[in-house]
Amino acid sequence: MSGAEIALLIVVNTAAWLTIHIACAWLGSRIPLSQFHASGPLLRIRPWESDGQIYQRALRVKIWKELLPDGAKWIQGGFEKKRLASREPDYLRDFLRETRRAELIHWVVFWSAALFYFWNPAWVVKWMFLYSAIVNLPCIIVQRYNRGRFERIMERCDEIQS
Questions:
Q1: DSSP 65-96
Q2: What is the rounded distance in angstroms from the CA atom of residue 151 to the CA atom of residue 58?
Q3: Residue 108 · residue 24 · CB < 8 Å
């Protein structure tokens, strides 16, 4: 590949990633939170995750999770997850739903790296998947960590109210 061809690929791939990130975030934020009232097979917290605590033990998620940007600031009508705005049960349920929505969006963006096969050589696609993993997996981990903890808290609140 010539230098000009590589430069063109960089421009096209950068534009594609920007479009994918923005489109997925915007479209995902338009899905009503009510659609995320329960975790399906992809988003369900597994027993091995120990209510999300595996991410603290193995990856020390509390140390670095605050360093991640909250994309809600960039999308009109986004649900900010950086800090809890309330301790009211309805808000906490919405927060749980938002963690599901955010995780789903990050999975969609992650797997969008497969689209790069259509115009890139295989060696470039490997770099696209690496980029996608670096950008999306930390966000997915944080959503799963937070949701595991909040589901446990909400279950306790529901038990107390019963």
A1: GGGS--GGGGSTT----SS-S---HHHHHHHH
A2: 20
A3: yes
